[in-house]
Amino acid sequence: MQWEISGKLTPARKVPVFYYDSTSFAVIFSASTERVRNYLPHSDMHPIELYPGRCLVAFTAYEYGKTDIGPYNEFSIAIMITFRKRQIPGATLALQMIHRRFTSYVWHLPVTTERARLGGVELFGYPKFIADISFEKQNDSIACHLSAKNQKILILKGKVLRTRKGKVTRYVTYSVKDGIPLVTNIYMNPVEYAETRSSKVAQLDIGSGHPICDELKGIQLSTKPLEYHYAPKTQFILFFPRNVIED
After folding, report:
1. Taking CA atoms, which of 10, 34, 171, 227 is between 20 and 30 Å from 100?
2. The pLDDT value given to residue 247
3. How many CB atoms lie within 10 A of CB 138?
4. 13 in a domain, yes or no?
C-alpha cells in the first residue's frame, strides 16, 4: 500500500486493508433515542432500540499492532442503526446478534497517526481526527485513555476475561462524505475473545471541556453497561466503501 508520494501523504489506493494483529475491547450502553437522533446526519438512519426510547451506543478501543498502514490506536464511538429499514425495538438487535452482523453510524473516530486519519477521511468519510489514545494494561484489567489537545475526553475500562476463539463477525458501518451516505464492510476474526452482559466488568469515565464530552453527557447514557467484549488478539479486514445508491 502506497501512502507517500513526493513527500506528501495521500490516501491509500489498495484495499481491502488488513489488520493482522490487534487488541480491542468494546462496551455498549443505552442512551436516549430522542437525544441520539439529533446526531444522525441522514433521515434514513434509525437508531436501533433495546426498548422504545432507549437506543444503543458502542464505545470501542483499538490497539493495532500490525496493519497495512502501520501501527496506530483508534477509538470508535458508534450509534447502532438501521438504514432505510425501520427497526423493531429488541427484535432488530436480536436478529443482528444471531447473524453476527451489526450496523452502525460512526459518530466519532479519533486516531493516533496522520496516515490513518487521512485515509479514513478521504476514502471512507469517517469523522477521524488526531488524538492521544493510550492503553493501560494490568493482570486483571485494561483501560484506554482518550484525550485531545491536553483535554481529557474519556477513560474506558474493562476486565481481562478468560478467552476462546470467537465467531467471525461482520460490521457494516455508515458514514457521510460530501453529503453522500457511504457504507463499508468490516470483517472481524476474533482469535481470542470473550463477551459478557455483566454490568460490573466495565465502566466509562467522561471528562469535561471537550465538545465530545458535552455530547456524551447530553444523550443520557445508562450508568451501567449492557454488554462488554474483550478481544486481546483480533484480525480485521476493512473493505472499500460504496455509495448506498449502489445497494
Report:
1. 34
2. 61
3. 8
4. no
Residues of the chain with pLDDT under 50: 1-11
Domain membership of residue 47 (yes or no) is yes
Number of domains within the chain? 1
CATH value at residue 105: 2.40.400.10
3-state secondary structure string, the chain?
CCCEECCEECCCCCCCEEEEEEEEEEEEEEEEHHHHHCCCCCCCEEECEEECCEEEEEEEEEEEEEECCCCEEEEEEEEEEEECCCCCCCHHHHHHHHHCEEEEEEEECCECCHHHHHHHHHHHCCCCCECEEEEEECCCEEEEEEEECCEEEEEEEEECCCCECCCCEEEEEEEEECCEEEEEEEEEEEEEEEEECCCCCEEEEECCCCHHHHHHHHCCCCCCCCEEEEEEEEEEEECCCEEHHHC
pTM over 0.90: yes
Q: CA-to-CA distance for 228 and 196, rounded, in angstroms?
A: 5
Contact indicator for 157, 203 with CB cutoff of 8 Å: yes
- Domain enclosing residue 96, as ranges: 23-163+196-230
The values of phi and psi at residue 90, to 5°, are 85, -50
pLDDT at residue 244, rounded to an integer: 84
Q: How big is the CA angle at 58 (ends 129 and 34), to the nearest 5 degrees?
A: 100
Tell me if 16 is assigned to some domain: no
Look-up: residue for cell 434509525? 46
Residue 93 lies in a domain: yes
**Sheet with 141-148: strands ordered across:** 132-137, 141-148, 151-159, 202-206
